[in-house]
Design a protein that fits this description.
Layout (H helix, E strand, L loop, with lengths): L10 H11 L8 E3 L10 H11 L11 H11 L1 H10 L6 H15 L8 H10 L4 E8 H9 L8 E4 L1 E4 L2 E6 L7 H9 L6 E4 L5 H6 L3 E5 L7 H9 L2 E4 L1
Length: about 240
C-alpha cells in the first residue's frame, strides 16, 4: 500500500508511515495540524485579512485589526488566535460558512502539498481515523479538509459559542495550540498513533503521539520543530 506514497514522501517519512499501513497492525487515530502541514500558508490568518479588507467583520472598523491580531499573537499566541474568532462575533454562522467556502475555493484550493491527499487517503483506507487539530477558526479548516474526506466531527479548531445562529465572543477553551492540542485530544479520548505538524505549537501533540512526522519547507532548518525532530530522530517531510 505504501508503494504509491514513495512518489510523494521522503524515504524517512515513508519509513514512519509504512508500519501503520501493514496488514494486522492495530488501527488508531492519526492527528494532523492544518496550516503548513496540509497546505501552504495560514488559512486562518489569510481569512482574517480578507474579512477585514472586505469590511465583513461586524466588530467595528477593520483598519488596523490585523496589526492588532499580530501584536496579540506575539505576546500570547493562543490568546491571539482566540481574538481572531472574537472579531467574528455577530456573524451568522451560516453566512460565515458560505464566506469560508468562497475564500478557500479562491485562495487555497491549489495549495495542498503533493503528499497530502495520497497520505490521508492511504491512512483512511487502512482504517485509521483522521483528526485535524488546528489553531485556525474551525469554519475555514472544516471547509479545507471536507474535500479530503474529513468530517466536522473530527476537526478540532478554534470556535465560538453560537447563540441564535450567530457567533458570540465566548471562544471555547482550551485553544488547540501547544499543550491545548493535547488537552483537546485527551478530552475526546484520542491518543494518536501518528501526529503530523509543522511548527513549535505542534510539539506537544507530536510528543503525545506514538510516532511523529514533521513537515517543513525546504531550507527551513531553523524551525524549532525541525530542530526538535533532529534531536528526537523524527522524520522530516519537505513541503
Amino acid at each position: 500500500m505504501a508503494t504509491g506514497l514513495a512518489r510523494v514522501l521522503s524515504p524517512a517519512a515513508l519509513r514512519t508511515v509504512a508500519p501503520l499501513l501493514e496488514p494486522g497492525v492495530a488501527r488508531g487515530p492519526v492527528a494532523f495540524d492544518a496550516d503548513g502541514t496540509l497546505w501552504r500558508g495560514d488559512v486562518g490568518e489569510d481569512l482574517l485579512r480578507w474579512l477585514a479588507a472586505e469590511g465583513l467583520l461586524p466588530a467595528g472598523p477593520s483598519r488596523g485589526i490585523y496589526a492588532e491580531y499580530e501584536r496579540r499573537v506575539a505576546i500570547d499566541a493562543a490568546a491571539g488566535y482566540a481574538f481572531a474568532v472574537e472579531l467574528m462575533a455577530g456573524l451568522a454562522e451560516a453566512a460565515l460558512e458560505g464566506l469560508c467556502r468562497e475564500f478557500f475555493a479562491r485562495r487555497f484550493e491549489g495549495r495542498l502539498f503533493p503528499f497530502t491527499r495520497p497520505l490521508l487517503d492511504e491512512l483512511a483506507a487502512a482504517g485509521h481515523e483522521i483528526w485535524i487539530v488546528s489553531a485556525s477558526p474551525v469554519w475555514i479548516v472544516a471547509v479545507g479538509v471536507e474535500g479530503l474526506g474529513v468530517g466536522l466531527d473530527r476537526v478540532i479548531a478554534v470556535k465560538a459559542e453560537i447563540a441564535a445562529g450567530q457567533l458570540t465572543r465566548r471562544v471555547e477553551q482550551p485553544i488547540p495550540f501547544g499543550p491545548g492540542k493535547v488537552q483537546q485530544l485527551e478530552s475526546r479520548g484520542v491518543r494518536p498513533a501518528l501526529a503530523v505538524g509543522n511548527g513549535e505549537g505542534d510539539l506537544p501533540m507530536l510528543e503525545y503521539a506514538g510516532s511523529a512526522l514533521v513537515v517543513a519547507p525546504y531550507g527551513d532548518d531553523g524551525n524549532g520543530l525541525v530542530r526538535a525532530a533532529n534531536a528526537r530522530g523524527w522524520a522530516v517531510q519537505r513541503g
